[in-house]
Structure to design on (227 residues):
């Protein structure tokens, strides 16, 4: 089954304790992205990657790191989480269109993070 | 820069009534536009997309949207609401290497 998986689905942690949220896709997509969803703000992009070893900042990158060492995996790293990073996080992946734009993005089930 | 605006953060309809969720876009190039749906405690899934082919786009679960360049709109409609349509709906526009989302519209369906 074609899918994007995220782990963990739920995480409660404390301020300053480093954590990693994993994301994996089995569709051989070049493009992967991380979003955070907050009430009233919709989804905002944190980081994205257009291929292996190529990553770029989205709209809200502060406090986050990513890496893309393999095509299928795109982990999100919070080196020193703070309470304002409490949110619902989604990973997504896509192909590119013939015109070079990101095409339909397929989303993982989400990770609900609470930082105390 | 590309952007989308969704008018109305909450919409309520009766079961069987018309559903209309509004989305206006801003784009300096011919846009690629999407509607996604998020059911409670789930990720987002694609309802439909416009990529400069037919202006009337049909999606899953009898939803459709019409691209109107003159009005810079891409409103989502469904002729007859079902209880299972209760969800949050997001309009989005592609900006080359980014997907820009609106703030979402929560649809409530009353019996």
């Amino acid at each position: 089954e074609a899918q994007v998986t995220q782990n963990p689905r739920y995480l409660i942690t404390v301020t300053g304790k480093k954590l990693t949220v994993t994301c994996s896709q089995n569709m051989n997509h070049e493009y992967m992205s991380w979003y955070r969803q907050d009430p009233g703000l919709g989804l905002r992009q944190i980081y994205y990657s257009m291929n292996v070893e190529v990553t770029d900042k989205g709209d809200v990158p502060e406090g986050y790191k990513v890496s893309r060492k393999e095509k299928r995996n795109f982990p999100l790293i919070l080196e020193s989480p703070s309470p304002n990073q409490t949110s619902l996080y989604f990973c997504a992946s896509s192909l590119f269109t013939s015109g070079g734009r990101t095409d339909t993005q397929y989303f993982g089930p989400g990770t609900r993070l609470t930082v105390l | 820069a590309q952007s989308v605006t969704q008018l109305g953060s909450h919409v309520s309809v009766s079961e069987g009534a018309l559903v209309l969720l509004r989305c206006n876009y801003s784009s300096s190039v011919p846009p690629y536009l999407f509607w996604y749906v998020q059911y409670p405690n789930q990720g987002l899934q694609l309802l439909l997309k416009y990529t400069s082919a037919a202006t009337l786009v049909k999606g899953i679960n009898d939803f459709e949207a019409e691209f109107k360049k003159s009005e810079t709109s891409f409103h989502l409609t469904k002729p007859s609401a079902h209880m299972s349509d209760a969800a949050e709906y997001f309009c989005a526009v592609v900006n080359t290497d980014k997907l820009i989302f609106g703030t979402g519209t929560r649809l409530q369906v009353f019996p």
